Amino acid sequence: MTKKTLIFDVSVIAENLNGGRGRSGIYFATYNILKNLMKSERFNVVLYSEINDAKFIDFIKSEFGNNVKVFFTNRYALFLSKMTKLDKKLRAHRHNVLKLLLNIFVRKPVKFFGRLAGVPYCDVAFSPLRVFGNKIHAGKKYILLHDAIPVLYPEYYPQMLLKKYWFYDLMKYIKSGARCKYFANSNATKNDFVHLFNMNPNDITVTPLAANDTFRRVTDAKKLARVRAKYHIPKGKKYVLSLCTLEPRKNLIRAVKTFIEFIRRNNIQDMVFVLGGGHWNEFIGHLESEIHDLGKYKDKIIRAGYIDDTDLATLYSGAEWFVYTSQYEGFGLPPLEAMKCGCPVITSNNSSLPEVVGPAGVMIDWNNDEQHIVAYENYYRNKKLRNEMRTMGLARAKEFSWENTVDLICNEIMK
């Protein structure tokens, strides 16, 4: 069988190599889909990026070898990011400066791995996020849809009003009737796009995401103790874990507020809430406005901050349960990661989360305080329930794998 040439947009990886907040589910989905596509016998995979820097080049070499083909076709994004570091006067004239820089540099061939920066015609183009640039020419084009939250909840995305956000470009692209097909990370995401943009359901294939193989149950007592100490979890205390960025849609204020009410109501002394991710000062400010006597409960909230990738499985494994009662999710990787580590979960009963968790978790209304408190109480008091959910979660997580995701993608492309 003759291999097809597939060009893959890796700009998301190039943008977020520094870790931290940018390393979201979209980053990990992009990386894992690419990793498995590179193993496929059906395609010769060529990489395309709008950002070209030394760290990215080193990463590509280390992950995929020196012979991988990479094309860079647009340096505007890189120049723009550098311009933001200049003083206000220069930024006021940045477009004139950029025009000059683009005329100087972009018109010259950019060599990488011995190839020029012009993108050739290919059989298939795949983008894990954004619309395709004008220089991408392919027989088939596919874009992965993650969620329609900027349209469903525009109050969280004021940048949409400026028409400068990547999702705005995606909306225009879909409405233009461009010759393209799509993958969606869940049935919920597919249904949203069909209804919001009057898309043909046959043009969207559902390809559920997965958790990395690094997520597995950790039982090593020394490793558990080391990670607890690293993130300042008090000895002798059980902990509840929540892992997400601090944004209103994630519902973190309610999750912590109801936890405090749970320990106050039941006079619980042996539990703390471990918060991974988020901006601590901003979060505490919001929480203090919700709980007038937060002071005596502050030691019940442990700031873990950004969790190193190598510590995630251990932190999940040591938790009594995991809380992820988001207002809306396109897929929701953290609950799946938790289940794969044998951690019981509490999630919302909306959007894609029932597709991910199914019967293997406690599902509640995201905006119901009492349901949060009752869910905490049930897990705390009922060890049998925790063990049942742990077993069911481990089994449920096995239904998701990146190999299956990429098989679905390949099968659709090869039709």
What is the CATH homologous superfamily assignment of the largest domain? Glycogen Phosphorylase B
Low-confidence stretches: 75-95, 97-117
Mean pLDDT: 85
Shape: globular
Label the CATH architecture of the largest domain: 3-Layer(aba) Sandwich
Question: What is the radius of gyration computed over CA atoms, rounded to a whole number of angstroms?
Answer: 23 Å
CATH topology call of the largest domain: Rossmann fold
Q: What is the CA–CA distance across the termini?
A: 14 Å
Largest beta-sheet characterization = 7 strands, parallel
Sequence of strands across the biggest β-sheet: 3-2-1-4-5-6-7
Helical residues, percent: 40-55%
Q: Kindly give the count of domains.
A: 2
Number of helices: 18
If you had to describe this structure to a student in words, what would you say it looks like?
The chain has 415 residues and is α/β, with parallel strands linked by helices. It folds into two domains: 4-75 and 110-210 and 402-413, Rossmann fold (3-Layer(aba) Sandwich), CATH 3.40.50; 221-397, Rossmann fold. It contains 18 helices and 13 strands. The chain has a seven-stranded parallel sheet. Helix 11 (252-266) links the parallel strand 8 (238-243) and strand 9. Helix 10 (221-230) packs across helix 13. It is globular, with a radius of gyration of 23 Å. The two termini are 14 Å apart.
